[in-house]
Amino acid sequence: MNEPTGRRTRVAVVFGGRSSEHAISCVTAGSVLKALDRDRYEVIPIGIAPDGRWVLEADDPDRHAIKGPDQLPSVDADRAPVTLTRTGSGAGLVVSEPAAPPRELGGVDVVFPLLHGAWGEDGTIQGMFEMAGVRYVGAGVLASAVGMDKAYLKVVLAAAGLPVLPSTIVTEREWAEEPASVRERVAALGYPAFVKPARGGSSIGIGKAHTADELDAAIEGALRHDPKVLVEVSAEGAREVECGVLETLDGGVETTVPAEIRITGDHEFYDFEAKYLPEEATELDVPADVPEETAAEVRALAERAFRAVGCEGLARVDFFLMPDGSLVVNELNTMPGFTPLSMFPRMWAASGLDYPALVDRLVSLALQRGTGLR
């Protein structure tokens, strides 16, 4: 389907959600709302409150910004409820307000889901859009689910011959019933080790166990965010390098120049505060200061990872550049952040595609792609 003619394209921007990354999703939405060209797009902001309610949110990018460490944005659950409905020609939106009959907002050409974490980035909302027959930005159901689950992502990447770090999975039940077995498996991996919610993001709930004495607290901290935890070898001495991947309108794939994140101050790793709070906690090198052959390998591996997972639209692939010069795939994000501090738009800007053009490309790709099997 091509972009609608004779009128502005109707874009529903969906953000917030039920995951621990609710605030970051709101910040991302604020940036995208600001970037969408209102001469080309009719924008409908839809917020999903932490309790799961869908509401017609304010079209006010500044309201969705981080004001400080204790002033994170959130969807206003008291706003008018909104429902996505299936129509004969696709999908439409209906608003329900007190003491008033339901009000139709009309059809939706494309949804831009800016949800991070579970119940949004993990294939759940993508499945709903598929059922509703509405086009949407980004990866489909399976790729979204695989990208969200760090354990299954490693399985898929390793099966495709891509390098990953050794790891083990710990479930809430196993930790409660067989903690000694878990400690033995982690000891076999070696310390230090990173402990992560398997289906989390934005570095929320991640801990580093330098010794066995720190393992229990790290696992329990991660389990507060996810009943499934990934424990993996720490890439000691490695540099953190990222690469953006974007589909082209003719079905090809483009990659960005690699970028490097360097942690400063008191942050031992790229945690939530280093990512989203004062920028002086990190130094971002775009492009990364790496040899040409390393940059070329990063870009080639990023494209391979994108295709191995079956991504569509966009992805950000994160790597560890090890002290010996080898590369290891750390993670793949099917809906990377679009905040002012986010690496994905910065890498594309450094590669010749500015923020508004990037947003336009993603909407055009979604309009071009149908729903269903493909």
TrEMBL record:
<dbReference type="InterPro" id="IPR000291">
    <property type="entry name" value="D-Ala_lig_Van_CS"/>
</dbReference>
<keyword id="KW-0133">Cell shape</keyword>
<dbReference type="GO" id="GO:0008360">
    <property type="term" value="P:regulation of cell shape"/>
</dbReference>
<feature type="binding site">
    <location>
        <begin position="232"/>
        <end position="240"/>
    </location>
    <ligand>
        <name>ATP</name>
    </ligand>
</feature>
<dbReference type="Pfam" id="PF01820">
    <property type="entry name" value="Dala_Dala_lig_N"/>
</dbReference>
<dbReference type="InterPro" id="IPR011095">
    <property type="entry name" value="Dala_Dala_lig_C"/>
</dbReference>
<feature type="active site">
    <location>
        <position position="202"/>
    </location>
</feature>
<dbReference type="InterPro" id="IPR005905">
    <property type="entry name" value="D_ala_D_ala"/>
</dbReference>
<dbReference type="InterPro" id="IPR016185">
    <property type="entry name" value="PreATP-grasp_dom_sf"/>
</dbReference>
<comment type="similarity">
    <text>Belongs to the D-alanine--D-alanine ligase family.</text>
</comment>
<comment type="function">
    <text>Cell wall formation.</text>
</comment>
<feature type="binding site">
    <location>
        <position position="331"/>
    </location>
    <ligand>
        <name>Mg(2+) 1</name>
    </ligand>
</feature>
<feature type="binding site">
    <location>
        <begin position="330"/>
        <end position="331"/>
    </location>
    <ligand>
        <name>ATP</name>
    </ligand>
</feature>
<keyword id="KW-0479">Metal-binding</keyword>
<keyword id="KW-0464">Manganese</keyword>
<protein>
    <recommendedName>
        <fullName>D-alanine--D-alanine ligase</fullName>
        <ecNumber>6.3.2.4</ecNumber>
    </recommendedName>
</protein>
<feature type="domain" description="ATP-grasp">
    <location>
        <begin position="154"/>
        <end position="364"/>
    </location>
</feature>
<keyword id="KW-0436">Ligase</keyword>
<feature type="binding site">
    <location>
        <position position="333"/>
    </location>
    <ligand>
        <name>Mg(2+) 2</name>
    </ligand>
</feature>
<feature type="binding site">
    <location>
        <begin position="202"/>
        <end position="203"/>
    </location>
    <ligand>
        <name>ATP</name>
    </ligand>
</feature>
<dbReference type="GO" id="GO:0005829">
    <property type="term" value="C:cytosol"/>
</dbReference>
<comment type="pathway">
    <text>Cell wall biogenesis; peptidoglycan biosynthesis.</text>
</comment>
<keyword id="KW-0963">Cytoplasm</keyword>
<dbReference type="GO" id="GO:0071555">
    <property type="term" value="P:cell wall organization"/>
</dbReference>
<feature type="binding site">
    <location>
        <position position="318"/>
    </location>
    <ligand>
        <name>Mg(2+) 1</name>
    </ligand>
</feature>
<dbReference type="Pfam" id="PF07478">
    <property type="entry name" value="Dala_Dala_lig_C"/>
</dbReference>
<feature type="binding site">
    <location>
        <begin position="194"/>
        <end position="196"/>
    </location>
    <ligand>
        <name>ATP</name>
    </ligand>
</feature>
<feature type="binding site">
    <location>
        <position position="331"/>
    </location>
    <ligand>
        <name>Mg(2+) 2</name>
    </ligand>
</feature>
<dbReference type="GO" id="GO:0008716">
    <property type="term" value="F:D-alanine-D-alanine ligase activity"/>
</dbReference>
<keyword id="KW-0460">Magnesium</keyword>
<keyword id="KW-0573">Peptidoglycan synthesis</keyword>
<keyword id="KW-0961">Cell wall biogenesis/degradation</keyword>
<dbReference type="GO" id="GO:0005524">
    <property type="term" value="F:ATP binding"/>
</dbReference>
<dbReference type="InterPro" id="IPR013815">
    <property type="entry name" value="ATP_grasp_subdomain_1"/>
</dbReference>
<dbReference type="GO" id="GO:0046872">
    <property type="term" value="F:metal ion binding"/>
</dbReference>
<dbReference type="GO" id="GO:0009252">
    <property type="term" value="P:peptidoglycan biosynthetic process"/>
</dbReference>
<dbReference type="InterPro" id="IPR011761">
    <property type="entry name" value="ATP-grasp"/>
</dbReference>
<dbReference type="InterPro" id="IPR011127">
    <property type="entry name" value="Dala_Dala_lig_N"/>
</dbReference>
<feature type="binding site">
    <location>
        <position position="150"/>
    </location>
    <ligand>
        <name>ATP</name>
    </ligand>
</feature>
<keyword id="KW-0067">ATP-binding</keyword>
<feature type="active site">
    <location>
        <position position="342"/>
    </location>
</feature>
<keyword id="KW-0547">Nucleotide-binding</keyword>
